[in-house]
Design a protein that fits this description.
About 45% of the residues lie in helices and about 15% in strands. It has about 500 residues and is an alpha/beta fold. The protein folds into three domains: about 130 residues, 3-Layer(aba) Sandwich (Rossmann fold); about 160 residues, 3-Layer(aba) Sandwich (Rossmann fold); about 80 residues, Arc Repressor Mutant, subunit A. Helix 13 crosses helix 15 and helix 17 packs across helix 18.
């Protein structure tokens, strides 16, 4: 019968020692099993998975240091604490290098032994939790990268499944942050092109003078700096999918070249007279109203109809609030893995408050806020006090667009702490001071530390902690931070 409490296995040929240790360990609430020789030990390990193995360094005729690698090869996750009556620093170092979890002298100090077992139990539980989280995060329906059981999202999923079986061009419409690229990836991964490349390119980020080269490629010497031939995104996507994001921002001249590519499915590199045939499926996305852009003369009508063979509208988060708890839980699990906070979980009041908010930055805003909460939460239980003020008050001054419009919204919430920043701060007391919530205290402290290190340079401070310069200024005003005390005699960059 398998034990129901954490199991400690004791491997020692001295029966007086094993009995005494077992009595103490069981008194602490753990199960024990004893092996007095190597054969018994190996037999027990084939039937049991102990939380901790206490192994005598001189185990009968067997050297514990020689046995340790064999045991870890049989059971890589096994935690072994070596026991010895002749301890030395060299022996302890050798044991640790071989993979020992701990090294204890005989007779062991009972308090030390109790702490060692407790830590082994906690580590085993954490390893199990990490494995569960990894399986949870990686588990998803085949090809579908979207989360949500709401009717609005199920309609999107249905469209994805239908259009994926064809090579029709798809136009994905939706506000910023709704997950348009995830929709495009899902279409690709459910299509016959799934084994081919998925090549995304942000049309709004293309430098005007290099856009044609980046899309269609160039030959060596085609222009200054072209020291070698280079294939463009359209050619790299051969036998796969080309995803043109932010298509509404494309330059009108470039639109004509894209239209020709869609009509002929051929690529002509800059500086080359040859045209190369490619087999590419094109998916485009925009948060703009393209028909309005057509009426304004900013977007070609023939290109619009060429792209808009199958439109897929991704609903904003405020129109599928029932999906918020599921999304928030997935984002928290992912952040927990990233930051080693496997104990994280939401209080119900937190999820209720999040489900009542409209999320103008959509899923991206929700994901950023959850990551921020995972970083700053002082305990494993993420309470509503970790939410930002606008989420709790529901008083954001945001003009919401009509449901059929696709426009950029206000800047999404950004995590206030960039974990790669080269500065430290300490978590203040959860009780708060001056009426400030814990999350605000931490944010203010992080901003002040960044300003201190940059001598009041707001632009550099913003870069250091991962916020925009405009956001930093708003928070400096909100927290009544005096820039003069950080600047010294130097000029504060960016202050007008």
């Amino acid at each position: 019968m398998k034990p129901t409490t954490p199991l400690v296995m004791i491997a020692d040929d001295d029966t007086d020692v094993t009995v005494l240790l077992a009595r103490h360990i069981e008194g602490w609430g753990y199960s024990t099993v004893i092996a007095n020789d190597k054969r018994t030990l190996l037999a027990l390990l084939s039937n049991y998975k102990p939380t901790l193995l206490l192994l005598d360094l001189r185990f009968g005729t067997t050297d514990g240091l020689e046995l340790l690698p064999q045991l870890l090869q049989l059971a890589p996750d096994l935690m072994v604490a070596l026991l010895t009556a002749h301890g030395s620093i060299d022996t302890a170092v050798a044991a640790m290098k071989l993979g020992a979890y701990d090294f204890l002298t005989k007779p062991p100090d009972l308090n030390r032994l109790k702490v060692s077992i407790k830590h082994a139990v906690e580590k085993q539980a954490m390893n199990r939790r990490i494995q569960e989280l990894e399986e949870y995060v990686q588990t998803a329906p085949t090809g579908i990268k979207l989360l949500g059981d709401s009717p609005a999202m199920q309609q999107v999923v249905g469209l994805i499944r239908s259009v994926a079986q064809t090579d029709a061009s798809v136009l994905i419409l939706g506000e910023s942050g709704t997950g348009k690229e995830l929709v495009a990836k899902s279409v690709h991964e459910l299509s016959r092109r799934a084994s081919g490349p998925f090549v995304p390119i942000n049309m709004a980020a293309l430098p005007r003078d290099l856009a044609e080269s980046l899309l269609f490629g160039h030959e060596k010497g085609a222009f200054t700096g072209a020291d070698k031939s280079q294939a463009g995104s359209c050619e790299l996507a051969d036998n796969g999918t080309l995803f043109l994001d932010e298509i509404g921002e494309m330059d009108v001249v470039l639109q004509a070249k894209i239209l020709r590519f869609l009509q002929e499915r051929t690529v002509q590199r800059v500086g080359s007279p040859k045209r190369v045939q490619v087999d590419v499926r094109v998916i485009a996305a925009t948060n703009r109203n393209l028909l309005e852009r057509v009426r304004e003369g900013q977007f070609r009508e023939d290109l619009y109809y060429r792209l808009n063979v199958v439109p897929i509208r991704v609903p904003p988060l405020r129109q599928r609030k029932e999906d918020i708890p599921q999304l928030a839980a997935r984002f928290l699990q992912r952040a927990a893995l990233s930051y080693g906070r496997v104990d994280l979980h939401f209080r119900q009041e937190t999820l209720t408050a999040m489900s009542s908010y409209d999320w103008p930055g959509n899923v991206r805003q929700l994901e950023n806020l959850v990551e921020r909460m995972a970083i700053l939460s002082p305990t494993g239980e993420v309470g509503p006090d970790m939410l930002q003020e606008e989420v709790l008050s529901e008083k954001l001054d945001v003009k919401r667009p009509p449901s059929n419009a696709h426009v950029e919204f206000a800047e999404p919430v950004e995590p206030c702490v960039n974990t790669s920043s080269q500065f430290e701060f300490t978590l203040p007391s959860p009780s708060g001071k001056d009426g400030m919530r814990l999350v605000d205290q931490v944010e203010k402290q992080a901003i002040e530390e960044a300003l201190r290190q940059t001598r009041g340079n707001v632009r550099d401070a913003a870069s250091m902690i991962g916020l925009s310069q405009a956001t930093i200024y708003r928070k400096i005003k909100r927290y009544d931070i005096d820039l003069d005390i950080f600047s010294g005699d130097s000029k504060i960059v960016g202050v007008s």
